[in-house]
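Reviewer 2 asked us to include a model.

Predict the structure of this chain.
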Amino acid sequence: MTPELTAAPWIAGQTRQLLAQKGHAWLLHGPSGLGQYELALSLASAWLCEQPTEEGACGQCASCHAIAVRTQADLAVLMPETVMMERGWPLSEKAQAEIDDKKRKPSREIRVEAMRETVDFAQRTSGRGRG
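Predicted model (structure tokens):
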């Protein structure tokens, strides 16, 4: 696993348990600073990895690389725009255009439109032909 995807020691056991479960979506929520982002990215990386181990993603395959460079077609990230920008995730074309054109500032909350786009994403088939 890449350093960014390494789970904190206090959640490593739970990470392994969650990796044994399959699902099409997970909602992680809680106060800032508990590691939800790292856990979510670690789980998504392992589920999308082409050669996962019991510990998680391999960090070497095409899917792991696509996640590292923020271009994995089968991964939807839903966070406030300000957080997405801080963490290097691309915004939707429409949102980015509105911000670039100074029509509005990046949102500090998850926008309804972003949630709708995520629901639409979840109803599409896999771009890479996997689960």
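The helical segments are 12-19, 36-48, 62-68, 81-86, 93-100, 112-122. Residues 76-125 form one domain. We have added this to the supplementary material.
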